[in-house]
């Protein structure tokens, strides 16, 4: 099969290779998926740059956890009725060497949920880390109906889905964005108010628009960089759910200020979601896809052999939405 892999850590253009690799076989409990799409995420880029130093100890790695395709074969213990089923896949390269940057991937059957016929393979590649992370951030701390939620970076991969999940569940959404195009995307997803996070006084703009009312919860894309400003707008007893802190990876916490606000800080990573939360996310994703309630933001579509360019785009941080590789 055609695949992309790396054998050493380093820059995408230096270490990602494209060529032939052995086609996998499904083990017991697994399905073999003929992939149509693969999507890199920031965590894939970080793995390639040695965020897990022992990742290559057992040999080369085929990157990417997300993708979509069709089940071609099943292993022992999996219903043969799954053969021919359209699926989206997640966690393909979590705790495993071989991900979705290939023509085929073999992975646990539970990690390949059904993809409704009306949903494209491009959209299917966006559902793993982005849509499931957003679902966890929104719903991990109870109902959001009637709540006011601030979603920073609302036009990004996770934020765009978070706006949709929360607004459709009855929350009032305030999002941050940095330009007119992203503001429009946030509003189309369901945001009632959008403020420009490039402006230093955006917390004051937010509070002026709410009449001084503070937000119940925050879903934050840059915990360390945004913390001081977020603390100006979150209410006592509020929740900050965060899934990234790339700009300030080791933030300093104003402990007493946060303690006197009685805040809950929730760190979210899709790889480690509890099984119950994962199953709920999968069920809600399928229902939303079937009813046409989820909009997907694909920023760029490239070919599999352009994987290094896809990684470069993710690292550059200027694309809003997912970068999808056609396999």
TrEMBL record:
InterPro entries assigned to the protein according to its UniProt record, in alphabetical order: ADH-like_C, ADH-like_N, ER, GroES-like_sf, NAD(P)-bd_dom_sf, Zinc-ADH_QOR/CCCR
Keywords of this entry: NADP
Gene3D superfamilies linked to this entry: Medium-chain alcohol dehydrogenases, catalytic domain, NAD(P)-binding Rossmann-like Domain
UniProt cross-references to Pfam families, sorted A to Z: ADH_N (PF08240), ADH_zinc_N (PF00107)
GO terms assigned for molecular function: oxidoreductase activity
Domain Enoyl reductase (ER): 13-325
Transmembrane found in the keyword field: no
PANTHER family: QUINONE OXIDOREDUCTASE
Protein name (Swiss-Prot/TrEMBL): NADPH:quinone reductase-like Zn-dependent oxidoreductase
Species whose genome carries this gene: Breoghania corrubedonensis
């Amino acid at each position: 099969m055609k695949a992309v892999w790396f054998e050493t850590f380093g820059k995408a253009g230096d270490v990602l290779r494209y060529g032939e690799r052995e086609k996998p076989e499904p083990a017991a409990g697994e399905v073999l998926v003929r992939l149509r799409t693969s999507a890199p995420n920031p965590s894939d880029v970080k793995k390639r740059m040695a965020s897990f130093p022992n990742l290559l100890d057992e040999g080369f790695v085929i990157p990417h956890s997300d993708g979509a395709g069709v089940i071609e074969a099943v292993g022992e213990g999996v219903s043969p009725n799954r053969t021919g089923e359209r699926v989206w896949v997640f966690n393909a390269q979590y705790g495993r060497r071989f991900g979705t940057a290939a023509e085929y991937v073999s992975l646990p059957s539970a990690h390949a949920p059904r993809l409704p016929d009306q949903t494209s393979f491009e959209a299917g590649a966006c559902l793993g880390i982005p849509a499931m992370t957003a679902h966890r951030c929104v719903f991990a701390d109870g109902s959001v109906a009637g709540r006011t939620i601030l979603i920073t970076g609302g036009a990004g991969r996770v934020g765009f889905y978070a706006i949709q999940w929360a607004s459709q569940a009855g929350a009032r959404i305030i999002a941050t964005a940095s330009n007119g195009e992203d503001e429009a995307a946030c509003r189309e997803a369901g945001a009632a108010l959008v403020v420009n996070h490039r402006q230093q006084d955006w917390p004051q703009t937010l509070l002026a628009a709410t009449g001084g009312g503070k937000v119940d919860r925050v879903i934050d894309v840059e915990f360390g960089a945004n913390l001081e400003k977020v603390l100006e707008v979150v209410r006592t007893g509020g929740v900050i759910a965060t899934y990234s802190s790339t700009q300030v990876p080791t933030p300093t916490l104003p402990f007493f200020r946060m303690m006197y606000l009685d805040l809950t800080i929730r760190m979210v990573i899709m790889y480690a979601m509890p099984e119950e939360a994962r199953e709920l996310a999968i069920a809600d994703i399928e229902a939303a896809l079937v009813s046409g309630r989820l909009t997907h933001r694909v920023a760029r579509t490239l070919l599999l052999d352009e994987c290094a360019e896809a990684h470069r785009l993710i690292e550059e941080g200027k694309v809003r939405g997912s970068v999808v590789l056609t396999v």
